[in-house]
Amino acid sequence: MITIKRTDSTNTDFQELVKELDKSLGVYYKEETSFYDKLNKIEKIKQAIVAYDKEGIAVGCGGIKKYSKEAMEIKRMFVPLTQRGKGIATLILNELENWSNELHFKKCILETLKEKHYAIGFYKKNNYNEIPNFGEYIKAENSICFEKKLK
Prior knowledge:
The structure is a single chain. The chain is of the alpha+beta class. It has a domain at 3-106: Aminopeptidase, CATH 3.40.630. It has helices spanning 12-29, 33-39, 88-102, 117-125, and strands at 3-7, 47-52, 58-66, 71-78, 107-113, 129-131, 143-149. It has a seven-stranded mixed beta sheet with strand order 1-2-3-4-5-7-6, sandwiched between helices. Helix 3 (88-102) links the parallel strand 4 and strand 5. The longest helix is centred in the first third of the chain and has 18 residues, at 12-29.
């Protein structure tokens, strides 16, 4: 059984999972590391999710950050490789969408890397539609952006 906890970016389990995420992203970022590093600072994430297994071990995370009056940006989604395939990412994403909805946002937007085919497939499976790159990602050739309208 997976338990979902709403928290913020000061949560140490969230911080440790983000460190793992950053390490895993190193193979994708190559020379763009400094560009993506500045966009992925967690201090601006006021709402974060940590998923725990039945032993209380953190097995995934994600966050939301206000992007505009209508949109929350999904940030720092991560499930360690050893925990994938168990539906944890879907639970986290659903909770982030629910939280965004509760905060009266109309949509969630996000960015991922074009090389991360598993992530692209995951977001498409969860009804995210590709959109033109937004904000800082407009000129990022390695990025692909998505949005999902909330109910």
